[in-house]
Amino acid sequence: MSPEEELQSNVSVASSSPTSNCISRGTTVALKEHNYLGLSDCSSSVGSSTLSAGLTEDDKASISLKATELTLGLPGSQARDTDLNLMKNSVKLDEKPFFPLLPSKDEICSSSQKNNASGNKRGFSDTMDQFAEAKSSVYTEKNWMFPEAAATKSVTKKDVPQSIPKGQSSTTNNSSSPPAAKAQIVGWPPVRSYRKNTLATTCKNSDEVDGRPGSGALFVKVSMDGAPYLRKVDLRSYTNYGELSSALEKMFTTFTLGQCGSNGAAGKDMLSETKLKDLLNGKDYVLTYEDKDGDWMLVGDVPWEMFIDVCKKLKIMKGCDAIGLAAAPRAVEKSKMRA
Amino acid sequence: MALRLPSKVLKHILSFIDSNEDRNSVSLVCKSWFETERKTRKRVFVGNCYAVTPAAVARRFPEMRSLTLKGKPHFADYNLVPDGWGGYACPWIEAMAAKSPSLEEIRLKRMVVTDECLERIAASFKDFKVLVLTSCEGFSTDGIAAIASTCRNLRVLELRECIVEDLGGDWLSYFPETSTSLVSLDFSCLDSEVKISDLERLVSRSPNLKSLKLNPAVTLDGLVSILRRAPQLTELGTGSFAAELKPEAFTKLSKAFSNCKQLQSLSGLWDVLPEYLPALYSVCPGLTSLNLSYATVRMPDLVELLRRCSKLQKLWVMDLIEDKGLEAVASYCKELRELRVFPSEPDLDATNIPVTEQGLVYVSKGCRKLESVLYFCVQFTNAALITIARKRPNLKCFRLCVIEPFAPDYKTNEPLDKGFKAIAEGCKDLRRLSVSGLLSDKAFKYIGKHAKKVRMLSIAFAGDSDLMLHHLLSGCQSLKKLEIRDCPFGDTALLENAAKLETMRSLWMSSCFVSFGACKLLSQKMPRLNVEVIDEHPPKTRPESSPVERIYIYRTVAGPRMDTPEFVWTLHKNPEIGVSKLAIK
How far apart are CA B102 and CA B62, in angstroms? Predict the structure, then answer.
């Protein structure tokens, strides 16, 4: 088991990404105004199905282990290889003779090539990989005792090899701690502990401060099945569902899996039950959100104003995986309860 | 026949030179200048307590009156340096007690100070005047009491953001009734309540008191009573500002503040209720420094306060100020030189950071004297950075923390390379830079090439490869401190640029890809560097090529240090301390 599995990250870290074969970056899929992202399916289903199995981060992280993992990589990049080597003790680096005393300039210039073995070449894959790593490096305060740093880094990058036993120890340790709701990276953001502690203890009129200032931005995380990193959007910069979904479409278009072919109902802000069911049976993606109570609901059921008030997170799920989610009636009930 | 300046004349000339950088240059001219300079230097600054031995410092500067020391690396502030790493003040105090008993001032930053240490200070330096401890730990209020009671001529006692074992507020009563010399007292980081009557008496008998920073345990009533006794204060850190809202309380407070006609700096304001802010209005027009970074006050109230602060030069505030508030600052606070915006939720998961890049752009446009920025926000754009660089080429310190690791320009999805290029190129006097967001090797090529005066550079979650580190180490002419975390660097760049490391104070790298083998190699090649591998797991048990958790490399003439804990590995863990050499650099 990889340490990543135990990561308590609320990021859907998936080193899995749609295979390059399926990617057609130029493709933009027109989103319907009712917030289904009509993205067509592709073989990312291999990865995604496991992802959707549960919302636990453990499951998501386990994707990274699969040898069948589809990775988004530039042709020639060895990102895939490193995936396979994830939990191996031996590392690419071992195979290479280590650097001579004074490497020539050539080596420096080509170091980026060399390091490509570690998937360092900057491209989307690496952007995402790195992000995944950072997000997946879970620490607790002063948790420097554990080699998660290195271990978790090996998500798709190189050769960083903490040996398995150590990886396991961190695994065990992490698994025994309660599932954290938040992603933690030691010392990030770089705020002095003195300040962090003071803010925690001073009367933070928590409702006021945690609540949303009237006119400020309201960032929520948006994750998407099959995408290796997530983004944040400012809900206050949109005025209706239509704007939100087109923005999301633009943002995640690079993860679009091949053929377009958005289908679904004609654009409306509110979904009708029947249409919802139809679409859920299809292979489309569904936009869902986590509300204040921690429940996952389908986006589109409540008036926009109410939505931005309760939405904590967004997630673009595969349609078939969203079947268990709140169907319209329940969503409406909930909103009624709150109103 | 060579013309020689008589040392008396040189001495006289040197008495006008305060800057240590200049004095360092003077001491390089020739041996006699070296000798004259060293015998006249009064203020000694040691940026890394392990770079030189205390004995060597004491020997070189016999007239030393003031010593400033820094211990742990900067990233210790963010919990990246494990407890017990080092930075002990004791050996320094011991050495000074023996060799420099005329020492009057000690300033320590990020060091471990014990009560015994403090007692030694109190006992050893007869004319001790100034003790400033910043981000230090390891002592209790007993140690403070020792200083208070024994140092007859104590002028300055400041505990800034220290972690102190608080055994109660008694320490304050240890100031003898005869002590009247206090100029500055800062106990804002202590928790326990002090007896207000003790404080009142102390303040009353200290006519020279200019700076007073109270801890949150001091109530509003206490504050009022203190202000009445010390209307001459120029710097004030309030206690807790929350109290039941009685109209008399408000009036008393207002009046007390309006009597403080010399107040220039205001801080504290923990728990401040917005209703009490108007009590401060009378001092606003005179304020040059305002620290609202612990005040959970919202934008409209903040603006009401800030629009009255036309002379403000330094503003520390939380992101609750929002972009709108910063727009107001840009129009009212035209004298602003330093701005720091802290996150109210310093949390990776925070969804609600109310400031965006626009806030900083407003201030950059409106405040022509702006030269120092620390800004936390969720994401940024290249366009904003380019605007900031264009508007404020006079920036000296630019620290941007995009909280979202690897966040690209959210409008174009590109890395923030162009933006930081503009900053490096445009702000020619930039001395300190912290970068964040999505950055490729290119960004560092620009920084290496253009950031000629940058002395301190902080990097996190950036770059693609070794090339980035290579750009920095082979460029950045003035680089003194480089700290890097979570970047994909390996050994090549480090080994290739080993010589650069001797021109720098220190290099910190954590969660990168430096191997133990490379560290050993570096250590062997460069005897004047201490290469410390800070790693819980003995690197011996892993292949030499496996990366280490953290490395801290610094130049030193003191040789390997003897106080390393088990998790710090150096090549020479041997009993012989390196001979301290007179460093004629």
Answer: 9
Q: Which class for A212: exposed (0-12), middle (13-18), buried (19 or more C-beta within 10 A)?
A: middle
pTM of this structure = 0.70
Give the residue with greater pLDDT, A202 vs A200. A200
Residues A269-285 have a mean pLDDT of: 45
pLDDT of A215 strictly over 60: no
The answer to whether A219 contacts chain B (CB < 8 Å) is yes
The verdict on a CB contact (< 8 Å) between B322 and A205 is no
pLDDT at position B351:
62
Residue A186 has a pLDDT of: 85
Percent of chain B surpassing pLDDT 70: 96
Residues of A in contact with B545 (CB under 8 A): 91, 93-94, 98, 159
Under 8 Å CB-to-CB from B104, ≥6 apart: which residues? B65, B66, B125, B127, B128, B129, B130
Preceding amide of A189 cis, omega within 30: yes
Instruction: Retrieve residue B221's tokens.
Output: 């009533």
Q: How far apart are CA B214 and CA B194, in angstroms?
A: 10
Region of A244 (left: φ > 0; alpha: ψ -120 to 50; beta: rest) is alpha
Sign of CA dihedral B46, B51, B54, B55: negative
CA–CA distance, B379 with B413 (Å, rounded to integer): 11
A162/B406 Cβ within 8 A? no
Give how far Cα B413 sits from Cα of B291, B380, B524, Å: 35, 10, 44
Nearest to B68 by CA among B136, B163, B9, B145: B136
Burial class (CB in 10 A: 0-12, 13-18, 19+), B305: buried
Pairwise CA distance, residues B320 & A216, whole Å: 9
Predicted confidence (pLDDT) at residue A173 exceeds the cutoff of 70? no
> Which residues in chain A have Cβ-Cβ distances shorter than 8 Å to B520?
none
> What is the C-alpha to C-alpha distance for residues B200 and B229, in angstroms, rounded to an integer?
7
In angstroms, rounded to a whole number, what is the distance separating the alpha carbons of residues B47 and B455?
13
Q: How many helices (H) and strands (E) does chain B have?
A: 20, 23
Predicted pLDDT of residue A324: 67
**A194: distance to nearest CA of chain B, Å?**
6
Coil/strand/helix, residue B402: strand
For residue A127, give how far its alpha carbon lies from the nearest alpha carbon of chain B (Å).
8
Flag whether pLDDT at B27 surpasses 90. yes
**Among A148, A228, A232, A139, residue whose Cα is nearest residue A188:** A139
Cα separation, A4 vs B494, in Å, equals: 29
Residue that the structure tokens 């950036």 belong to: B462
User: What is the rounded CA–CA span in Å between residue B422 and residue B175?
Assistant: 54
Q: Which of A38-42, A289-293, B455-459, B570-574 has the highest mean pLDDT?
A: B455-459
Q: What is the pLDDT of residues B209-240, one digit of tens each?
A: 999 999 999 999 999 999 999 999 999 999 88
A294 touches chain B (CB under 8 A): no
* Whole-number average pLDDT of chain B: 92
For residue B532, CA distances in Å to B19, B509, B535, B549 come to 31, 11, 9, 11
Of B477 and A77, the structure prediction assigns the larger pLDDT to B477
Distance CA A32, CA B158 (A): 62
Phi-psi region of B507 (alpha: psi -120 to 50; beta: other; left: phi over 0): beta
Q: Please list the alpha-helical segments (H only) found in chain A.
A: 45-52, 57-62, 79-84, 92-95, 105-114, 124-136, 148-153, 164-176, 193-201, 206-210, 241-252, 273-281, 304-310, 328-338
pLDDT in tens, A299-325: 888 888 888 888 888 888 877 776 666
Query: For residue range A32-44, what is the model confidence (pLDDT) as tens digits?
Result: 344 333 333 333 3
**Cα B407 from Cα B401, distance rounded (Å):** 11
Tokens read off for B16 = 């006008």
